[in-house]
Design goal:
The chain is of the alpha/beta class and about 240 residues long. About 30% of the residues lie in helices and about 15% in strands. The longest helix has 17 residues. The radius of gyration is 17 Å and the shape is globular.
Length: about 240
């Protein structure tokens, strides 16, 4: 299964580079690839009822989703982001935290650290989770860049009780990133909505269920120890002392 996922990633990265679909930062290998038309894909989500109805949006810190983060801030919604590799927990930017005219800057990782605050607990119910992807299927399968942090973020949020099975998971990708098949395991988080430069897809009757929390038996103790927020949860649940 790991080799299949690796081949899918490498094919998508290579094709996006070869066809000049990838944009800064390049090369896109090893990344959630930024792509031509990412602003258009983001706009489709921003103009959706899903975005309009949400008060609290969790969004990944990847390049293609930056316009979404800017729109969340500009719309007076609460933005929650993960810090790189979850080493400092989560970042929260609340309405009023960002001076007018600085929304774009605040939507970058450096800007989010400047205007937001880091937390290890989230005092809000999350209405929508936005994630970056290397590849997706119209059945809801998703493939990230291989670090597993997006799935771990979701598992932590589920453990905290701020998301559940019904919390929509959204991604924006280029049309070329939609593939026919991606193998899924129990800790892989499926998606509910796909927005591309040309279409909006709502996934109904997905065969995949979202993880119910952290599957501690799948985590190496060293992984737990290197992420403070994970270590805190492990201690609370008696996983480690």
């Amino acid at each position: 299964m790991t080799s299949i996922k690796r081949r899918i990633r490498e094919r998508i990265w290579s094709e996006m580079e070869r066809r000049n679909i990838a944009v800064f930062p390049r090369p896109c290998y090893g990344r959630i690839p930024n792509f031509r038309g990412h602003e258009v894909a983001a706009k489709k989500f921003i103009e959706s009822k899903l975005f309009e109805r949400a008060d609290v949006i969790f969004c990944c810190p990847d390049s293609p989703q930056r316009p979404i983060r800017e729109a969340v801030i500009a719309s007076g919604k609460v933005l929650i982001m993960a810090t790189p590799r979850l080493r400092q927990g989560f970042l929260i930017i609340k309405p009023g935290d960002v001076p007018r005219g600085q929304e774009r800057k605040a939507s970058t990782i450096a800007g989010a650290f400047k205007y937001g605050r880091t937390v290890d607990t989230i005092p809000y119910r999350i209405d929508v989770k936005v994630t970056g992807s290397v590849a997706v299927t119209v059945q809801g399968a998703r493939l990230g860049k291989g670090g597993g942090y997006s799935d771990l973020e979701y598992a932590i949020l589920r453990e905290m009780g701020v998301v559940d099975e019904k919390t929509p998971v959204v991604t924006t990708v280029h049309d070329i990133q939609i593939v026919d098949y991606i193998p899924m395991t129990r800790h892989d988080v499926p998606i509910d909505y796909i927005f591309t430069p040309t279409k909006s897809i709502e996934i109904k009757d997905s065969p995949f269920r979202k993880p119910e929390g952290i599957y501690w038996d799948e985590l190496d103790i060293n992984k737990i120890r290197e992420i403070p927020i994970l270590m805190k949860l492990a201690r609370e649940r008696g996983i480690v002392k």
